């Protein structure tokens, strides 16, 4: 931006130092002058001393000395001020150069300002913290993009192989080919949709309205009931009206993902899923608990990372992208909520989403 060039802060500080010194020097000399005048008569003869100074003598003696002192103060103020201002502003130079480096794309550099806590140190530390967050965020985005492309490439490559085979064998079973293509294509669509939901939640680009979590829980369990029945899993829903503020479609997606997980990552036989909603003084809670294999407590906190799938036995008919819980985490964050994952004591998972209670 074309801003008019101004005096540097160092120069301005120097001029202020020198200026103050000059004002203080002038005041001091003026005081001395007034003090001297009291003891020296106007120009009349005072008494019989060998030498009795008059005001004009005093003037002659005082003024050149005063001028010398002022000149000295001026030089001293300018040189000392320049030096002091330089020392005071040195951290700013480092902060500025770090900002320039960050602006040119190097996020790994840190200011690492040493010394005691003061305003500059605070600024430098906050700047370093911001750089660290930014760096982590960019790395996360890059990992995400790489993972997403990798995941999308898989169904596309499978389709390519299927089409290749069909081309080489024109008389082959078209029906089976179509069925397979349909399934693989469906996976690619699901994955793309999951990515879109993630980006919508991450950008927080949605309108907020009053949503009752207990209604969402009912809707999600109703939709997934056939899947639960097919797997012989009992679904229970209970709880109070739990009003939150947010996007109904995103929060329904969150609930559906949790219930879907609870069904597909459950016991092979005789599993249960319990969905409950409750109201606390400041928050509303949605809890989805399910039976299942015993989970390693150290791995549980990582399950909500993007593209993280459990390595344990997965139902052959459910190969997920590992985005379900990441979407839940992202939607929860976009609604200023908190997500907790806890392994069940006898296996399975207990997921709790806490959101701010909607004002009455
Ligand atoms: N309710 C649950 N009970 C037991 N394990 C779970 C549960 N929910 C998630 N997990 C584990 O966490 C992993 C990640 O879950 P997530 O929903 O993110 O991915 P996914 O279900 O594998 O795939 P996607 O949801 O994208 O179709 C799962 O692979 C599973 O191992
Ligand atoms: Mg899932």
From TrEMBL:
Cell compartments where the protein resides: Cell membrane
The reaction(s) this protein catalyses: ATP + protein L-histidine = ADP + protein N-phospho-L-histidine
Keyword Transferase assigned: yes
Task: Please name the PROSITE patterns in this protein's record.
Answer: HAMP, HIS_KIN
- The residue stretches assigned to a coiled coil in this entry are none
Q: Where is the Histidine kinase domain?
A: 147-359
Q: Transmembrane stretches, by residue range? A: 12-36, 66-85
What are the protein's UniProt keywords? Kinase, Membrane, Phosphoprotein, Transferase, Transmembrane, Transmembrane helix, Two-component regulatory system
* Pfam families, per database record: HAMP, HATPase_c, HisKA
Q: Which InterPro entries match?
A: HAMP_dom, HATPase_C_sf, HATPase_dom, His_kinase_dom, HisK_dim/P_dom, HisK_dim/P_sf, Sig_transdc_His_kin-like_C, TCS_sensor_his_kinase
Q: What is this protein identified as?
A: histidine kinase
Q: Where is the HAMP domain?
A: 86-139
The main location is membrane
GO molecular function annotations of the record: kinase activity
**What EC designation does it have?**
2.7.13.3
Q: Which organism is it from?
A: Nocardioides astragali
């Amino acid at each position: 931006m074309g801003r008019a060039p101004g005096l540097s802060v160092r120069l301005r500080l120097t001029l202020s130092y020198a200026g103050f010194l000059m004002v203080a020097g002038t005041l001091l000399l003026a005081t001395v002058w007034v003090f001297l005048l009291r003891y020296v008569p106007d120009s009349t003869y005072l008494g019989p001393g060998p030498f009795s100074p008059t005001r004009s003598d005093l003037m002659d003696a005082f003024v050149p000395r005063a001028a010398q002192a002022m000149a000295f103060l001026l030089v001293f103020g300018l040189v000392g001020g320049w030096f002091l201002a330089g020392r005071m502003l040195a951290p700013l130079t480092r902060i500025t150069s770090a900002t320039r480096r960050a602006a040119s794309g190097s996020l790994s550099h840190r200011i690492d300002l040493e010394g005691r806590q003061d305003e500059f140190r605070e600024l430098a530390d906050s700047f370093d913290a911001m750089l660290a967050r930014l760096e982590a965020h960019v790395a996360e985005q890059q990992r995400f993009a790489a993972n997403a492309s990798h995941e999308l490439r898989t169904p596309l490559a499978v389709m390519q192989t299927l089409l290749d085979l069909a081309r080489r064998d024109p008389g082959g079973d078209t029906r089976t080919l179509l069925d397979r293509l349909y399934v693989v294509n469906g996976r690619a669509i699901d994955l793309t949709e999951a990515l879109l939901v993630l980006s919508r939640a991450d950008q927080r680009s949605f309108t907020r309205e009053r949503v009752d979590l207990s209604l969402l829980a009912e809707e999600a369990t109703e939709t997934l009931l056939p899947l639960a029945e097919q797997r012989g899993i009992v679904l229970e829903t209970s709880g109070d009206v739990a009003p939150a503020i947010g996007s109904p479609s995103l929060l329904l997606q969150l609930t559906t993902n949790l219930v879907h997980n609870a069904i597909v990552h459950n016991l092979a036989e005789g599993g249960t899923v319990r969905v409950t909603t409750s109201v606390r003084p400041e928050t509303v809670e949605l809890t989805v608990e399910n039976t299942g294999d015993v989970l390693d407590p150290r791995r549980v906190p990582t399950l909500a990372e993007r593209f993280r799938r459990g390595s344990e036995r997965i139902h052959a008919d459910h190969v997920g992208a590992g985005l379900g819980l990441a979407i839940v985490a992202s939607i929860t964050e976009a609604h200023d909520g908190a997500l907790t994952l806890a392994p069940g004591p006898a296996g399975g998972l207990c997921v709790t989403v806490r959101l701010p209670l909607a004002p009455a």
